[in-house]
């Protein structure tokens, strides 16, 4: 056993030295190789892992899953691994929002895989997965961008239509801009029984929502020099949107403590009119066993901000190969296999969005005849077209941790939006300076 | 006559008040538990309903069936988690009892220099919060290869439990009169035999109560387990709860079902050891 | 030969000392060292930079830290006292029953079987302002037509956290005090009744002094074990919103892992450990006094 691994190492070393000569057939053959993998756990993600057995059969290698945890626990674990130098495992689940935090531990997949293996991926996704010129992860069919879910019958009700037009001076229709969302949310709200809309109120969640509205309003988070620039006019306008809805009681009074699960459950309970949310909830909302609003759900692309741009904070899950991996070719083959066309078809069948052009075409074709699914896919495809990732700084998560308490302070009225954003910008500057980015 | 009747009436009334008070208190204690059981049996649409549905309309064991089915059908490796939890909690309880007995006996039966200081020192190791321990412990474990192993978890929980087991068991040995063991030794027993045949049976209730505390602590611990376990080789049930959360979603019903699976063994064990528990704690406390 | 044999108490204590030294002391020394460095998880080489007391200096001038510190002390004081009073009441109610005690005692211990993380999820959901059990019940009973922001308002969130903490830990007190009640000799009670004491006097001057050691043991165990509360708060509010429920443990955990600033987090942890040691040592000394009192009386 020991002997064979050593030979293999030699072969691999040769192969990496001359990647062109390799120009391998994927998935390739890796008899006797063992790949240690850290995968994200949870029901939504595990269907894909049944494909691992097929890869093992095709290549003769074995995959040893050494860790399976949720998103945030895995992040903690990888940070602990970096701190203790335990990076000899090969394949790890990764996320586009977290990837910039792990500088240098992941290998460039563009050199490990032939060029045509990457051609089918959505360009924007590949760009977001490329950090400092290195393609650090391949996206799986777990692309996340938000669209606007709404209760259809509210827009069909004649009383609503006339009352709304009388009050706001324009006809009631599914909102195209965030200002319209605010008007309609206030119009529909009847606290504590019914709310116009809602938003996540803490951690990266609200920081991300603020960030996308800032961009949609024409602002930028970090300026060209990399300094925090979110305390601009566009930033204040964005934060004011959150504050106004909270003051008008158009959102549940508990939102500053809400995370994604609270939002999804809230909309499913039928007590919320409009809900900007992720694709993972689409089938849940329309399932009569899970949701009160099943059959009454409409989906529209995310509205635009004052800069005439749609909000579109996006992210995706994927897989990376470590620099310390003893068998990078085999690991890259596994990563490719788990993100190839068949894998993405399998995964997106359950609802998540793909990251390959061919699979987008395929799922839309498959959805023909299912009106709801078609509506969902069209809305999200539109959203994906204008989506953008988080600012690509290793300090993003750390900045969100100083930003969100300030956003909350403004929402709860402890500070004015300008004060809150100025304070957050000051703290973010310290973080960036400490990290040597400024 | 009249006075007597009033007094009796008063007594019955106050008795009833106290009974009602007890009933209310017990209801408050049980309610969250029953609520979890109920939620594990009904669909999410009912759990999240507003206006609320107080009387359940459709009950099913779907969540439990799903939990045990394969990956991709809503299943989680619950059998592995359960096995890990049992192995880790039981073994670490037994080891901490053994160490606690030997340590407790030393404090109860011998005089030595700095005894009070040693005792307080041992207790204070428990004051270190798990969150402060988790990373340095991870460092050490990574060096010696104990990450994601049963042995590593058992060792950690043993350290967590030893201070309390020593304390409780110390109290019980103090309670057993010295003369008994001495008499046995005069009758020809060795010190070792005297311990097992005379002192141990008398202190058994204390050992049982220390055991149940240790077991419950290990069974429910989360902070250390989430740092030191990684795969189904060693993940325990509390860590498994997080399998029902994804980046954006949470399966509340499934989580409740797993919670029920977690609570039942603890409940059965506590009921079984119950008899010893209270009589056990009784003696330990006073004669410090 | 004999000189080489360890005395029995040393031998008997050795296993405990070895385990605790390996699992608690050694890691603590490591984290003590790192609290003098700017150690960041994502940049391992920073563990070799020695910055002296800089982390501690920053902590001592950091208002947010001291507010969290004060809130932690307040939470501990309120929760431990409430638990003690409620535990005493519960124990006295249960003690009156001669039949069905085993069932009652098992129910009494029910909350101890809930993993703290589960308690957190459960109470977070119950206190949800929109679909939570508490607001639903209050609204159904017509007590309020508002959605009460349980986890948002600083005071209400503090109350909600206290409720969760008290629910999960009153059992410990109840069980210990119940043990004390059952061990109590009957003669002094009888004597007090003959002397014409009111029930309150009997309780105050006979029962309570006898129960004190039990209450303090429970106090000590709980104050040693307070980090349990971390799991609950982490899930319920994680210190938010806008830092209104920030306690030491949530602050430390976020600094350590989310911000990856482990050196700073360890310095904070050391200040937090001093706090628990102070609490524990105080209860320990009270326990000693109470025991001496009982020993003198009986």
TrEMBL record, chain A:
Residues 1-23 form the signal peptide. One of its GO terms (cellular component) is ATP-binding cassette (ABC) transporter complex, substrate-binding subunit-containing. Keywords: Signal, Transport. One of its GO terms (molecular function) is maltose binding. One of its GO terms (biological process) is maltose transport. Pfam families: SBP_bac_1. Belongs to the bacterial solute-binding protein 1 family. PANTHER family: MALTOSE-BINDING PERIPLASMIC PROTEIN (PTHR30061), MALTOSE_MALTODEXTRIN-BINDING PERIPLASMIC PROTEIN (PTHR30061:SF50). This is Sugar ABC transporter substrate-binding protein. It comes from Marinibacterium profundimaris.
From TrEMBL, chain B:
The chain crosses the membrane at residues 20-38, 86-107, 119-142, 154-173, 255-273. GO terms for biological process: transmembrane transport. It holds the Pfam family BPD_transp_1. InterPro entries: BP-dep_ABC_trans_perm (IPR050901), MetI-like (IPR000515), MetI-like_sf (IPR035906). Residues 82-273 form the ABC transmembrane type-1 domain. One of its GO terms (cellular component) is plasma membrane. Keywords: Cell membrane, Membrane, Transmembrane, Transmembrane helix, Transport. It comes from the Bacteria. It is found in: Cell membrane. It is a multi-pass membrane protein. Belongs to the binding-protein-dependent transport system permease family. This is Maltose ABC transporter permease.
From TrEMBL, chain C:
SUPFAM superfamilies: MetI-like (SSF161098). The keyword Transmembrane applies. GO terms for cellular component: plasma membrane. Its main location: membrane. The chain crosses the membrane at residues 12-33, 73-94, 106-127, 156-181, 202-221, 267-284. It comes from the Bacteria. Keywords: Cell membrane, Membrane, Transmembrane, Transmembrane helix, Transport. CDD domains: TM_PBP2. Pfam families: BPD_transp_1. GO terms for biological process: transmembrane transport. It is a multi-pass membrane protein. It is found in: Cell membrane. Residues 69-283 form the ABC transmembrane type-1 domain. PANTHER family: ABC TRANSPORTER PERMEASE PROTEIN, INNER MEMBRANE ABC TRANSPORTER PERMEASE PROTEIN YCJO. Belongs to the binding-protein-dependent transport system permease family. This is Sugar ABC transporter permease. It comes from Marinibacterium profundimaris.
């Amino acid at each position: 056993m020991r002997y064979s691994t050593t030979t293999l190492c030699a072969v691999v070393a040769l192969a990496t030295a001359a990647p062109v000569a390799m120009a391998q057939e994927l998935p390739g053959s890796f008899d006797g190789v063992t790949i240690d993998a850290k995968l994200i756990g949870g029901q939504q993600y595990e269907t894909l892992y049944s494909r691992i057995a097929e890869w093992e059969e095709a290549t003769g290698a074995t995959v040893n899953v050494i860790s399976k945890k949720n998103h945030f626990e895995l992040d903690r674990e990888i940070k602990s691994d970096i701190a203790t130098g335990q990076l000899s495992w090969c394949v790890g689940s990764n996320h586009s929002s977290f990837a910039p935090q792990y500088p240098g531990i992941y290998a460039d997949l563009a050199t490990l895989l032939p060029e045509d293996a990457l051609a089918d991926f959505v360009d924007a996704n590949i760009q977001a997965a490329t950090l400092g010129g290195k393609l650090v992860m391949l996206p799986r069919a777990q692309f996340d961008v938000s669209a606007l879910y709404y209760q259809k019958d509210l827009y069909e009700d004649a009383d609503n239509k006339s009352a709304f037009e009388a009050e706001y001076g324009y006809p009631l229709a599914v909102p195209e801009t965030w200002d319209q969302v605010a008007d309609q949310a206030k119009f529909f709200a009847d606290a504590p029984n019914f709310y116009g809309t809602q938003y996540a109120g803490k951690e990266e969640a609200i920081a991300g929502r603020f960030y996308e509205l800032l961009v949609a309003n024409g602002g930028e988070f970090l300026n060209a020099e990399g300094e925090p620039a979110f305390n601009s006019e566009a930033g204040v306008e964005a934060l004011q949107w959150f504050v106004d809805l909270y003051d008008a009681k158009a959102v549940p009074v508990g939102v500053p403590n809400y995370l994604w699960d609270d939002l999804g459950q809230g909309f499913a309970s039928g007590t919320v009119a409009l809900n900007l949310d992720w694709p993972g909830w689409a089938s849940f909302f329309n399932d009569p066993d899970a949701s009160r609003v099943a059959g009454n759900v409409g989906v529209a692309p995310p509205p635009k901000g004052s800069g005439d741009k749609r909000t579109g904070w996006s992210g995706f899950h994927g897989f990376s190969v470590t620099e310390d991996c003893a068998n990078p070719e085999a690991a890259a083959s596994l990563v490719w296999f788990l993100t190839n066309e068949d894998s993405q078809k399998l995964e997106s069948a359950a609802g998540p969005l793909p990251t390959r052009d061919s699979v987008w075409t395929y799922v839309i074709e498959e959805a023909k005849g299912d009106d709801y699914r078609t509506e969902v896919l069209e809305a999200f495809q539109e959203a994906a077209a204008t989506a953008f990732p988080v600012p690509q700084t290793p300090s993003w998560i750390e900045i969100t941790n100083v930003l969100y308490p300030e956003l909350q302070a403004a929402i709860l009225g402890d500070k004015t939006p300008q004060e809150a954003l100025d304070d957050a910008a000051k703290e973010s500057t310290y973080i960036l300076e400490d990290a040597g980015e400024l | 006559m009249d006075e007597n009747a009033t007094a009796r009436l008063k007594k019955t009334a106050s008795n009833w008040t106290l009974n009602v008070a007890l009933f209310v208190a017990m209801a408050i204690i049980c309610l969250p538990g029953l609520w979890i059981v109920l939620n594990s049996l009904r669909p999410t649409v009912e759990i999240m309903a507003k206006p609320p549905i107080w009387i359940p309309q459709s009950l099913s064991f779907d969540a439990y069936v799903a939990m045990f089915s394969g990956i991709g059908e809503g299943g989680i490796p619950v059998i592995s988690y359960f096995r890990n939890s049992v192995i880790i909690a039981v073994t670490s309880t037994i080891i901490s009892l053994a160490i606690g007995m030997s340590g407790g006996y030393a404090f109860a039966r011998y005089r030595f220099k700095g005894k009070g200081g040693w005792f307080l020192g041992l207790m204070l190791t428990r004051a270190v919060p798990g969150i402060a321990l988790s990373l340095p412990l991870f460092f050490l474990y990574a060096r010696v290869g104990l990450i994601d192993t049963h042995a590593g978890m058992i060792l950690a929980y043993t350290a967590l439990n030893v201070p309390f087991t020593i304390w409780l068991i110390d109290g019980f040995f103090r309670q057993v009169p010295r003369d008994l063991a001495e008499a046995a030794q005069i009758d020809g027993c060795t010190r070792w035999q005297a311990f097992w045949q005379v002192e141990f049976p008398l202190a058994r209730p204390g050992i049982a109560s220390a055991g149940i505390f240790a077991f419950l602590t290990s069974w429910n611990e989360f902070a250390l387990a989430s740092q030191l376990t990684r795969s189904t080789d060693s993940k325990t049930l509390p860590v498994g709860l997080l399998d029902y959360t994804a980046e954006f979603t949470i399966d509340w019903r499934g989580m409740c079902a797993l919670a029920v699976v977690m609570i039942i063994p603890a409940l059965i064990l506590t009921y079984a050891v119950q008899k010893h528990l209270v009589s056990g704690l009784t003696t330990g406390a006073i004669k410090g | 030969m004999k000189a080489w044999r360890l005395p029995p108490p040393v031998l008997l204590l050795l296993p405990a000392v070895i385990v605790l030294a390996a699992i608690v002391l050694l890691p603590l020394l490591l984290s003590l060292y790192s609290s003098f460095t700017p150690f960041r998880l994502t940049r391992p080489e920073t563990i070799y930079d020695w910055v002296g007391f800089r982390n501690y200096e920053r902590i001592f001038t950091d208002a947010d830290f001291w507010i969290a510190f004060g809130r932690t002390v307040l939470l501990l004081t309120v929760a431990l006292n409430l638990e003690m009073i409620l535990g005493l009441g519960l124990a006295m109610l249960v003690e009156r029953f001669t039949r069905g005690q085993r069932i009652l005692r098992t129910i009494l211990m029910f909350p101890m079987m809930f993993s703290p993380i589960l308690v957190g999820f459960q109470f977070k959901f119950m206190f949800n302002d929109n679909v939570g059990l508490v607001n639903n019940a209050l609204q159904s009973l017509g007590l309020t037509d508002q959605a009460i922001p349980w986890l948002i308002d600083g005071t209400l969130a503090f109350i909600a956290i206290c409720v969760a903490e008290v629910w999960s830990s009153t059992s410990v007190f109840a069980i210990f005090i119940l043990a004390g009640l059952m061990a109590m000799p009957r003669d002094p009670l009888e004597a007090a009744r003959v002397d014409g004491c009111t029930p309150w006097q009997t309780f105050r001057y006979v029962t309570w002094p006898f129960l004190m050691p039990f209450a303090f043991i429970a106090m000590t165990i709980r104050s040693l074990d307070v980090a349990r509360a971390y799991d609950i708060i982490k899930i319920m509010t994680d210190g938010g919103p806008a830092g209104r429920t920030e306690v030491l443990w949530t602050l430390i955990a976020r600094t350590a892992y989310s911000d990856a600033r482990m050196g700073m987090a360890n310095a904070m942890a050391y200040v937090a450990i001093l706090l628990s040691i102070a609490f524990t040592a105080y209860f320990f000394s009270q326990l000693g006094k109470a025991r001496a009192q009982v020993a003198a009386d009986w």
